[in-house]
Write the structure tokens for this entry.
Amino acid sequence: MAQTSTLYRFKIDLSDIDRGVYENLEFRVAQHPSETSIYLLSKVIAYIVNAQEGIEFSPQGLGDPEAPAVRALDLNGTMALWIEIGSPNPKKLHKATKAAKVVKVYTYKDPKPLIAELNSQTVHKLETIKFFALKPKSLDELSQSLQRDNRWNVIVQNDVLTIHFGSVTMELELLPIHVSTSPLS
């Protein structure tokens, strides 16, 4: 018998000082049986720090490997934002930069192999893709407190998320990654 996805609910009081966004977010996200809690939380963090009109998790999740993990469509149905998690394939990023106005990658893995692979291949508008690293240790600590129903207060300032839930306060840093646009020799 196949395993089913686990559904998590989030209620987020967001104060994104960096972007001037102050909202109450409420969403559900399914964790596919093959997803780790670190992957799930990376998606949730990417969703939170990019909260905007039309943002959503990929409707088919891992069932559609060609779709972004998180996306935002504008009012015309055009892909405004394409977000990948982990170490995406360069071909997928090539496709993403042609399909979306903004492409971002949030990785919880060592970014060096991803950077080397991207620099050795041709990726359309590679220089426009924004890359961020999330520390796996911080995500692992956060995953220890993951509940089916989560209520967080999140403050984003200077690429640091301060997450309050219950009596716990955690900080999670978004580390920008520089990807050279010239191939390796």
